[in-house]
Amino acid sequence: MSNGIYGIEIAWLDAVIRLHIIVGLMTVVVMGLIYVERKILARFQQRLGPTRTGPAGLLQSVADGLKLVGKEDLRPRNADPWTFELAPYMVFIPVFLGFVIVPFAFGMQVRILELGLIYFVATSSLGIIGWVMAGWGSDNRYAMIGGMRAAAQGISYELPLVLSLISVAMVSESYNLNDIVLSQSTYPNLLWQPLVLVIFIIAGLAELNRTPFDIPVGESEVVGGPFVEYSGIRWSFFFLAEYAALFIMGLIFAAVFMGGWAWPLGEELGRGWQILLVTIKTSLFIFLVFWIRASVPRLRIDQLMSFSWKILLPLAFLQVLINGAVLVYEAPLWILTITGMLGIVVLVRLIERAVRPQPVTNESTVSIGNESVS
Amino acid sequence: MVVESTPGFETQDLLINVGPQHPSTHGVFRMVLEVDGEIVKDLVPHIGYLHRGAEKLCENNDFRQGVGYMDRTEYLASHNAELSYVMAVEALAELEVPERAQWIRMILCELNRLSSHFMFLGAFGVDVGVFGTPFIYAWREREAIIDLFEEISGDRMMYAYFRAGGLAWEVPGNFEERVREVLVSTRQGMKDFDNLLTRNEIFLARTKNVGIISAEDAVELGMSGPTLRASGVSLDIRKAEPYMYYDQIDFDVPVGTNGDVFDRYLVRLKEMEQSVHIIEQCLARLDDGPIMPERMPRMLRLPEDQEIYVRTEAPRGEYGIYLVSKGGNKPWRLKVRSACLSNLQALKKMSVGQYVADAIIILGSIDIVLSEVDR
Q1: Where are chain A's structural domains?
Q2: Which of B17, B129, B205 shows the shortest C-beta gap to A356?
Q3: How many structural domains are present in chain B?
Q4: Which CATH number belongs to the domain containing residue B109 in this structure?
Q5: Is the pTM of this model over 0.95?
Q6: ipTM score of complex
């Protein structure tokens, strides 16, 4: 780390250059992600997706971006000017702050922080403030409901997410993302922590406000939620933040659970291979998110909350306890694999019990029918 | 769920205006929700944004032209809407409709029921929150049916193909073959929907025990169609008062038990299977023959001082035509009994006490067509 990418010895200048590279890179990545999402969703829905703009529609995101820049920046008359106009940046900046610790390959990050995971969680939860600001400042009731939903959802799902990352950190014995990746060069963490992997994916989806947890922005209910009054470049900032958050979550997934650039080919690889590995693992997560988006309906806000507090959180706590016991008494790690698998079974059973509604005896129903459907 | 407010701190319920420009109101419907947090405490529906005076217009148009206005009252199932109208005119004029015309009408009406229910399934999937997938699935199957209608009548909507007495013209030569082709894709489409939604845990969680309406309430509110049958009342006009040749056809009437949103979805899905079954039987019975009565007057005139009420089972329920004739080639008064309007009455009863997100899918599950509500 002492000599940076360009051999610049001044630490802060080195960091600034790296940050700029990442912000520039991310904007391109987000455009790519939007294109890929549209193409993948189109395949799920037997459509073609964008085909007209550029070769195979590759320039669609660029065209959309240009259109958004050209649009008028509207602000409702009764909106709170400061809150309304600052909200996009409050969503955007925390997400990009998260990139400081994300390792793309060995030595390819802005900074290695000893408490990297904690830093990631802290920055990612800051974005909720922006959502609430957008919802409150818009002077729109849909936006307000959306903003309140975002706050409730963000707070509830922060906890399972943090606990799942903590239990991984326990196994890897570090909060430092670089060390976590290095500790997985033979076995990735998902082998020891299958339950936590599932919890991480579910909580991650909620954190990203992705289907089935896209309740704050639910198109069919609150018509885009906090974003309903935004247009043009401000709206595109929200969009940029959303996809950047997706990408960063994929990178964390790759680093924390899949062994980042170290597994399965060892840590001696060249930088190109490392980047390729990380890209594949990140894409896996992102594809999963798109897949889920194309196939499941949206949960309701009360179901979402009870799912987090009554199922995910207790299970995540349990996993942390078991991790502690196994590590303190130096028991073999495969015990964790077995308990994790059992935990997944319990999770599925609990989801079935909690989510599937109990039959209500409706005494007033008179069934004269000759065939019953239920 | 009322939160006790501390003294000196007053809380107020929030009024939300949903529609007429809202993605989930299925047309220009508007409802004002009074919400306490996420719970709906009151709901006031507002209709009339699409009122065109179709009934009045019919009074100034003869019985051939009137068919076109009927199409527009129920643009998702135009054939079924035309059917009630031409049946009312035929009954007053005492016209005998040829057998072949009746069978073709039955096939077209059932096909239109399929296309209309596909539209429901697609829109409902989007209401529940799947991103577009069910909508595109539904569109794909509906497209096949609409293509067939286009080959027959020349239009993709507003077919104006039925005439008092029979049909406007003969169907294309490959009609039977094409219908069978469409049925194959329809079957596949129904299977796809079953796989995508029916056993999806989240879908079940969202739709089961939501928006329950009891059988008594449903009957009292004058509901009809799948929305009524989902509550457990087995009333299908095709079975109860068979018209055309429905008495010669073997089919079941699917009935729900719980009267919730899920039952309304499932009843429609089951009904589609029955429609396919009906069409297959109709195709087997289809014979050559005339499609209009032999002695058809050039200008159809109805006898004086006659009135009639004809009702048929449209995809959304009882579609009735009340026609008063005082002689001449135009109705003196025409009244459309809209199933959607009656079904919509239940919206408040179903939605109060539910969540905001539920109110949206409850509205979706009623499957309204605003042009029929407002006419």
Answers
A1: 76-354
A2: B205
A3: 1
A4: 1.10.645.10
A5: no
A6: 0.80
